[in-house]
Amino acid sequence: xxxKDYVPDFNGAERVEVALYxxxxxxxxxGYEMGYDLTGYGASLGHGPTQLQFTRDDSEESRRRAAWxxxxxxxxxxxxxxxxxxxxxxxxxxxxxAGKHRLKLFLITRHSLMSARLRFALAESLxxxxxxxxxxxxxxxxxxxxxxAFLLLxxxxxxxxxxxxxxxxxxxxxxxxxxxRIFWSYED
Length: 188
Description:
The chain has 188 residues and is mainly α. The chain is 55% helix and 11% strand. The protein is built from six helices and three strands, in the order βαββααααα. The chain has a three-stranded antiparallel beta sheet.
C-alpha cells in the first residue's frame, strides 16, 4: 500500500483534521486503524482540498486496535497488518476498501432523509432550469441535462428503503472486514 502516509497526522490528539486532494478513503482507513472516528467531512467546491475531521475513540477496542497498528507501523510501516494479516484469504477486504465504505456510510447517515430530499429537489430544480435555458439556446445540451437529471434521480437513495439498503450494504462490508482482523506479532 504505497500511498500517502497520513499516519503521522493521527498522533493521539483528541481531534485531528486532515486536508487532502484525493484518497479520502485511505485517510479514513488510516484514521480508523489509528483509533479515530470520522466526525466531519467538508468537500471543497473547485480545486481546494477536502477536509476530514476525526475524533479520538477512547473505547477499549479502539485503543487495542490503535496499539497494534502503531506496533506494526513502527516495525515496518505496515499500518494495515492486523486488518490484512499474512494468513488472510485471497478475497480479503483491504483497509482502503473498508475506508471507502466507512466514508460512504458516514455521508449517507450524517443528514436526515428529509434534508437529503430537499437537497435533491434543489439540485433537480437547477437542472430543470438549465434544461429550459439550453432548450432555447442549444437543444442538444438540453437533452444531456435531461439525461443528467435522470441519472441524478437514479443515483440518489431518496426512499427509506433505498437508504436502508445502502446502509446495510456498507455495514456488511465493514463487518466482513472486522471479522478478518487478527492481532499478531512478529515475535509469535
